[in-house]
Amino acid sequence: MKQLKKNGYIRAFQTAFPFTIPVMTGYLFIGIAFGVMYQEKGYNFLWAILMSVLVYAGSGQYLAVNFFAPGVSFLDVVFMTFMVNVRHIFYGLSLLERFGKMGKKRLYMIFSLTDETYSLFFITKVPKDVAEDKFLFAIALLDQIYWVVGSAIGALAGALIPFDAEGIDFAMTALFIVIFVEQWLAGGNRIPAMIGICAALLLRLICGSDNFILPSMICIMVCLIAGRKYIAEDEKKEAVNHAG
Fold first, then answer.
1. Are 52 and 148 in contact (CB under 8 A)?
2. Residue range 161-191, pLDDT digits in tens
3. Rounded-to-integer distance, Cα 47 and Cα 66, Å
4. Residues near 87 by Cβ (< 8 Å), separated by ≥ 6?
C-alpha cells in the first residue's frame, strides 16, 4: 500500500514537471535577482535561502529587502506586506473546495500559494491517471524548489562576484507580464482578464499608484461574483466551439 502511494507521488511529480517549466525558467532568474539584492544588503547568503524556504512570498520578499533599511517601523512592514499580498485572500477563497479535500497537505498548499502557482492550478488540466491532490501538491512543491534554488544561486553569486543590482527587481514584474500574455494568447474566456485590466486602470487613475491594489482586488471580486453566471455560460460556449 505504501509503495502504491509512493508511486502515486512519483507519477504526480513526473506529470507535473512539464507544466512547471515556464515557472522554473522565471523563478530561477527572479530568485537569482532576489538573492543578489538580499546579499547586497550585507547579509550572509544562508539568510536568503532560509527566507525563501520559510517565507516564500515572491514580490513580498523583494519588498522585504527594503525593510532592512534604517527608519522602517514594524507597523510599516506589516502594512506594506499586507497591501502587497492582500490578493492572496481572494486566491484562497477560490480554492477552498479544492484544498479542503487535501487533508494535511492543505496547510502546505496554503503556505505555498503564489501568483504563478495559482495560475497553473487553473490553466492546467489534471491528467486522468493522477490524483488531483498529488498533482497540485507536486506543482506547488516544484515551484518552491525553483525559487529556493534561484535564491541560493543569486546569494552565492552576489557574495563572490560584485553586482550592480539597480533595476534587477523588474524581473518579478516581467514574469507577471509573461504569464498574463501566455494566458491571453491561449484564448478561452477573456472576460475575467478584461475585468481585471479595466478595474486596475480605472482605480489606478482614481486612487493613485500607491493605493489602488486593494480597491482593484475588491472591485474585481465584486464584478466576477456579480457576473459569474454569464462568465460560466460564456466558458461553456467556448468549450463547445472548441470541441466542434
1. yes
2. 766 656 666 666 776 677 677 767 766 677 7
3. 15
4. 115, 213, 217
Q: How confident is the model at residue 3 (pLDDT cuts 50, 70, 90)?
A: very low
Per-residue cell: 122: 487553473
Listed by start position, the domains of the chain span 2-169, 187-244
**Cα–Cα distance measured from residue 21 to residue 27, given in angstroms and rounded to the nearest whole number:** 10
19-49 in b/e burial notation, b at 16+ Cβ within 10 A? bbebbbebbbbbbbbbbbbbbbeebebeebb
For CA atoms 15, 31, 212, 179, the dihedral sign is negative
Give the CA angle between residues 185, 136, 106 to the nearest 5°. 130
Nearest to 39 by CA among 50, 25, 55: 50
Cell of 172: 518579478
Identify which has the larger pLDDT, 159 or 23.
Answer: 23
Q: Which of 151, 146, 157 is nearest to 61 (CA)?
A: 151
- CA separation for the pair 231, 220 (Å, rounded): 13
Characterize 106-140 residue by residue with b for buried, 16 or more Cβ atoms within 10 angstroms of its Cβ, and e for exposed.
beebeebbbbbbbbbbeebebeeebbebbbbbbbb
Give residue 182's identity as a one-letter amino acid code: E
Name the burial class of residue 53, with classes exposed (0-12), middle (13-18) and buried (19+) by CB atoms within 10 angstroms of its CB: middle
